[in-house]
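Students often ask what a holo structure prediction actually looks like on paper. The answer is less mysterious than it sounds. You provide the chain, you provide the ligand, and the output is a string of discrete structure tokens encoding the 3D arrangement of the protein together with adenosine-5'-triphosphate.
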Amino acid sequence: MTKSFGSQNIWRDVSLTLPAGEVNALLGPSGTGKSVFLKTLIGLLHPEQGSVIIDGTDITQCSAKELYEIRKLFGVLFQDGALFGSMSLYDNIAFPLREHTKKKEDEIRRIVMDKVELVGLAGAEDKLPGEISGGMRKRAGLARALVLDPEIILCDEPDSGLDPVRTAYISQLLIDINAEIDATILIVTHNINIARTIPDNIGMLFRKELVMFGPREVLLTSEQPVVKQFLAGDRFGPIGMSEEKDEAVAAAEAAMQAAGISGGGTKDDFSEIIPQVQPNPDMPVRQASIRHRQNVLNIINDLPPNAQAAIRASIAEEDRRAMESPETSATLVAMANHQFDYPAGHGFQAYDGATEQISTAGMATAVIDAPTQVVETPTEEIVVTEEITAVTDEGQASSRE
Ligand SMILES: Nc1ncnc2c1ncn2[C@@H]1O[C@H](COP(=O)(O)OP(=O)(O)OP(=O)(O)O)[C@@H](O)[C@H]1O
Ligand SMILES: [Mg+2]
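The corresponding structure tokens follow.
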């Protein structure tokens, strides 16, 4: 898509696919058009070129009636909360239910109070938006975004105005919702901690373009100066106070940097991928993480070497943690009636005498539910799909494709 206001172009040729059911983040300096992008996705703003295809319908071309129906799939948290000032929080949160459903008031009450509780606003539901803190308004906006159990959730800076602990709770809530209802989520954020631990995929807007969009490891290990500067939060680099930094300033800064003067940024190593936040134990396995792994393995050979290494390390770490979970290993041991030996690195040796290294392909429980395995050779060059239809008492796969 390309979007301008009058003669001011905001961004051009932005193309991306949000993989269904995955959690995505969009980063970018202030003013690069992230909020405009979200509003374009729901048809509140219209790109002058391009299309927005949702479930096969191009919402830039469809009728007003179709757009109205498609909007019901969305839950949107606007950057400013966008609450109705003259309505209580309760009525604000109930609004989509009254507008889009025929639910009776007692059912509406049950849903609203459930969401109020989820975002930690119990007791504040009768207050007006003007009577609560900025962070509370943000959480009320999120509660309202969630009442219709949306298939697509867009959150414009869910963390802004929230303290670090509440931010962690909101992030956890989004991961739990993704596990529970498989919603496709797009989070616009400046919060690097969220970017590192929450999304499956990350994109970044800069200088009117989408710099990148893909598996989180690609951006987090990127060598691009703009990405590194943004992640580190440093004033030295291509991003300036206004978008364009002139050459004299850039040269002066480079000299300061060479002299060891701090640009205020963190020295954290973002290429060391830290594990993603997992759903709470009472939640189902996140199907998105299984699909995401498959999607990533399909394209891994086309990614930069840094990203490939980081992805392999993430997968090995996820597998290791899955194997440590008592539930998972108990199921596996019960299935094969054999001791599993799980060496460091990729995959695990399934049983005595097995020659293959079988990766757990997402979650180890997938072994039970869907006996299709991704098997990687030790050289990691060939990916074979193998189906084990039964495991005998001796622990041998009795037939395979
Ligand atoms: N309705 C509008 N009419 C005209 N210009 C607009 C409109 N909405 C946004 N803009 C302009 O589009 C640009 C991008 O704005 P946007 O709010 O999307 O930035 P952003 O990336 O979300 O920034 P921030 O991180 O500060 O929220 C800005 O220059 C803004 O002035
Ligand atoms: Mg914005």
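The chain has three domains: 6-217, 224-256, 287-400.
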